[in-house]
Amino acid sequence: MFFGSHAALVVVCIVAFFDVVAQANDDLRWVPFDRQQFNGSVALDTNADVQLYWKIGEEYSTFGIASRSSGYLAVGFSQTGAMTGADIAVGYTDQDGVFSFENRHASGFVTPEVSQDQEGNMRFKEGYQADGVTAFIFEKKNKASCLETQADVAVTSWQWMIYAFSQDNSFSQHGPGENGKKYVRLGNGKVISTLDTPAMPGTRNWTITQPEVMIPTAETTYCYSLHKVPVANKNFLLAERPTQSSPLLHHLVVYACYGMPQGLKEMEGKQPNCEWETFSNPCSGFVTEWAPGMSGRTFEPGYGKPFGSELYEYVMFETHYNNPEGLEGEKDAASYTFLYNDIPVETEIGTLTLGDLQVTGWFLEPGKELVPHSTVCTPECTRKWPSEGITAVSVFHHMHYRGRNTKVQIIRNGTEISSLSSLRDFEYGYQFSKSLDEIKLLPGDKFITTCEYDTSKDTEPVPGGLSSQEEMCFAWVDYYPANDVLACTQFDLGSAAENQINGTVAVCMESTAEAPDVVPSAYLNSTFESLPVTGDNCPAASSPGSNPPGSSDEAAVLSTCPETEVCFSIHVPRESASSGSGDIYLQLSAPTTYSWVALAQGTTMTNANMFLMYSSADGTNVTLSPRNAPEHSMPTRNDAANVSLLEGSGISDGRMTANFRCSNCHEWSSGGMSFASDSSDWLYAYRQGPSIVSDDTNAAISIHDRHGVFQWNLSRATGGSKLNPFTGAAGNTTSNSPASVSGWERLSATVRRRFVQAHGALAAVAFVAIFPTGALLIFGYTVFVAAAGLGIFMASSSDRLQEPHAIIGMVLLAVFFFMPFVGVVHHKVFGKVHKRTWWSYSHIFVGRFGVLLGMINGGLGLQLADAGRSPKIAYGVLGGLMGVVYCGVVFFGEIRRGKTLPRNVATVSKPKQLGPDDSDRAASPERRLP
């Protein structure tokens, strides 16, 4: 009995020590919501401090996001990994301590705007912010209703997820290291390649290095160097590791050289040929490319790209340098590394080039928001594929700086089927190889590759060409099994008597052919049945086609809400847009809980053209104050501004609204703005708190709480005549806060932090300092009751009563409540029989195990509260040390008692009447420890 019980006690002590110290190893207990409701998860950052969870549904999919941060948290669905076009969910705690959720849309690398649709696209479920953690769960509609401001969910394949967070709840630009992106496999589509660079044992490195060149000062330079592949009949490329060696590097391309002319083999080992305007690259097979934004790529086991003497023995390394500033003395030695071996793979990957291989000879119309350019791959080429067809697994889309959208359509038997690939909101600095969920392509299929460009800032036609300032349109498709077809497109041969064929022809390039197959084709202009257009059900206010300039007298109004409750609108009359000057109409709207709100033309506060709104002296109207700030000082009244407050302005239903006309906003003392601009720059700022309440247009203001920037496409706000477009249209807002929240959630983060700190301190004092010493047990229990009360309040308010820490705490509270009564019985029985009974053992050992369990539970509490590393280490060391000391005292005390027990028994056996004091002394060993 003695050795068994004390051996168990030693085991518990050892477990207690290591369990307390090891709490920090459970990396996901800090996530506050139920993770079991999801079937997919990934850490978005390298430190695993931002965790994403998801469950794909039929119409809506559910997502959970959690971050070890104390401020706003945002997660976005992006086509490219860039902010541009991202459909973003934002969660934060407002000034009243209420968790708020917003759906926002990023039109560029600017503050995302609050989306008009706050119910259909995303649906908020729950949110949490406390103890250094922000988290929320929401539903996202899989098929977007309006692709202008929303994004589809890649339910069967891969999705770029972007994120940002802050340590405060002011939704502004994130700090360094507080954002990122990750390419996430949401669906269960087959994986062929991944955009990462894991170690690959059993492979060899093949690095192509361009001999160092002095980069010319010309804006555009292409250099070419020839390299021999590793010797073997057939090798297999298994991974790519590109390196951007110079900031002037625009892109890299590695071409396979089939049927290499003997004379050009002399280029091997020589200085690169940078006479790009006269050099003709004879190599047409595409191996790979690097462009800004691209990372390494690795094929899954069983897949690889074949190369070697059976296919090609040389590659041409093309480097494109873009030096618009004409920098001198810049050097570069570009390189590209492949991992390969000669072990045959199960599936050989090939690459098909689609798009405009002619590169030059075509032009884009200037001054247009979207201009398409298309090329066709005809069935004359695809019929050369194997009879079972091929399977596309990824697409790399490539354009230059004007590129906006691109897609590859599949036309089969005169009918368009699901697209091979599409990409909206293209960003040149965010290029990548887009993974596909294995798409079957059949012999006889026709493909239309279309690129859309923004030429609104161009005044002359934009040519296709090799320069960065010109445009391209390519789509490189990886597929299996590899075959001889390298490229499929069309060429414009022009019209000349010496040509055997004139006009536009179909072109098919094969690795086994000495020259491309060029044929006239009826498929270049053939009609087909199109798929229904989806994703264009956009609100009229955000649709550029709803009120085209000059179409009618109806005013076109463009609105944005960069903050949930702060909104701005603009209208440009047709006459003002045509002349470049004249009246424009603006609206500012915000709650009366704001001291002041400002809208400004420009990119920075200095020299911006500002308009401030605050309550008038009588509290029924608003004061409009035009201002400017020559330097970084508080803005003062701008007497040169020609503004008029219009009908519909005032204070109603808790909101301030200023409708006004500006007659000289096309220019001001330090700047100007084009009323036809598609990207006009605007700023906003505000201060919350008691309103200024003044009619003075030069009233003193305090520094803003928040500010931000955004852009307006004024062409969408153009139309109608010189009329006030805002009459009766002010004051509409949407609330996105939960209908009800607990008292705990309504407390500020500071107050909640103090509750947590008080709970932890009291419990630690009770279990680490008071209970183990055996002193002041009633006081220790009182301290523990106070700690438990705080804990139960916090756990019940934040739905954490089911957590192990809370359950153990409540069990201990109940057990220790009965311990004094059990102790009294123990002492009375001991006084009669002069030996331990089951009352004694229940009192002594339950108490001791309870103390140890309380120490362990302190570690669980630190983990649940997501405490920092330092508190965890400090508690682990102190609690563990105290636990070991406590166990040691108990263990050796019991050994000592066991040795003295016979003498004590002999003494007690003498006939003697014990008094109360003697009974107490006899029981003294049991009184030292609980």
From TrEMBL:
Query: What CDD domains does the record tag this protein with?
Result: CDH_like_cytochrome, Cyt_b561_FRRS1_like, DOMON_DOH
Q: Where is the DOMON domain?
A: 48-166
- GO MF annotation list: copper ion binding; oxidoreductase activity, acting on paired donors, with incorporation or reduction of molecular oxygen, reduced ascorbate as one donor, and incorporation of one atom of oxygen
The protein's matches in SUPFAM superfamilies, at most eight in alphabetical order, are given as:
CBD9-like, PHM/PNGase F
Q: Where are the transmembrane segments?
A: 761-794, 806-826, 838-861, 873-893
**What ranges does the record give for the region Disordered, renumbered to this chain?**
535-556, 906-930
> Keywords for this entry?
Disulfide bond, Glycoprotein, Membrane, Signal, Transmembrane, Transmembrane helix
Low complexity bias locations: 539-552
The UniProt entry, under Pfam families, shows: CDH-cyt (PF16010), Cu2_monoox_C (PF03712), Cu2_monooxygen (PF01082), DOMON (PF03351)
The Basic and acidic residues compositionally biased stretches are 918-930
* Cleaved signal peptide residues: 1-24
What is the protein name stated in its UniProt record? DOMON domain-containing protein
Q: Which organism is it from?
A: Cladosporium halotolerans
Supply the source organism's classification.
Answer: Eukaryota, Fungi, Dikarya, Ascomycota, Pezizomycotina
